[in-house]
Amino acid sequence: MKREIIMTNDGSTTIHLPEWNESYHSKHGAIQEAYHVFIKNGFLLFEGHELLQTGEAKPISILEIGFGTGLNAFITFVESLKSNQVINYVGVEAYPVSIEEAMQMNYISQMAENQSDIFKSLHHLAWEEEHQLTAHFSFTKRQQFFQDITDTNTFDLIYFDAFGFRVQPELWSDLIFQKMYDALRPNGILVTYACRTSIKNAMLFVGFSVEKLPGAPGKREMLRATKGLLKI
């Protein structure tokens, strides 16, 4: 399938698949979408959420569904530096982008030029192994189909960033969201850019509490789902 590197409206790049008319990120702005959906409405909810006996924040375990270009992992790393939050990050991707494609993304210059080695490491490090990028950030990439995920009671936060329902509806099914529900710890959160009624219903069906939130620029709404609370 043909793949193109394109510029989005906020000046950041993404990969576009012309055959599907689908992109890895919003054409309205790759970085601004990632920040709005996954950082503002996901990661930042966990700032100082629990303290250990040492007085330090409890580590946050994050599962990313659709590692793709590495944008979400990189922006999470950059944001975690502001609070010294300890992160255990796992990115799952069935079809990894090439290192050559990843290195054409301009996220380093757009977000953190002093962290270029980290972004490069996200793509050059071996799959299926845990890597300690810094004292506060561990990182694992898994090449895996989403339906093969079997984690249980492991993660505090899921970034659900699969291709859209229009092109891959099977990734937004009851089956997949049951796996997401099982992978989260009690009161864990899943955030996604999508807000289709059938997606919300699939989340509700497996037991999530679901709320609609304002979407990133160019999209009216997004969804946030919580494990272990009453449905609304």
Properties at a glance:
8-stranded mixed sheet; alpha/beta; Rossmann fold; 27% strand; 3-stranded antiparallel sheet; 232 residues; globular
Layout of SSEs?
Blueprint: E1 4-7, E2 13-17, E3 22-23, H1 30-40, E4 60-65, H2 71-80, E5 87-93, H3 99-102, H4 107-111, H5 116-124, E6 130-134, E7 137-143, E8 155-160, H6 174-183, E9 184-192, H7 197-206, E10 209-214, E11 221-226
Parallel strand pairs: 4-5, 4-8, 5-7, 8-9
Antiparallel strand pairs: 1-2, 2-3, 6-7, 9-11, 10-11
Helix pairs in contact: 1-2, 6-7
Can you put this structure into words, describing what you see?
There is one protein chain. The chain is α/β, with parallel strands linked by helices and 232 residues long. The chain has a single domain (29-226), classed as Rossmann fold (3-Layer(aba) Sandwich), CATH 3.40.50.150. The chain contains 7 helices and 11 strands. It has helices at residues 30-40, 71-80, 99-102, 107-111, 116-124, 174-183, 197-206; strands at residues 4-7, 13-17, 22-23, 60-65, 87-93, 130-134, 137-143, 155-160, 184-192, 209-214, 221-226. An 8-stranded mixed β-sheet has the order 6-7-5-4-8-9-11-10, with helices on both faces. α1 packs across α2. The longest helix is centred in the first third of the chain and has 11 residues, at 30-40. The protein is globular and about 40 Å long.
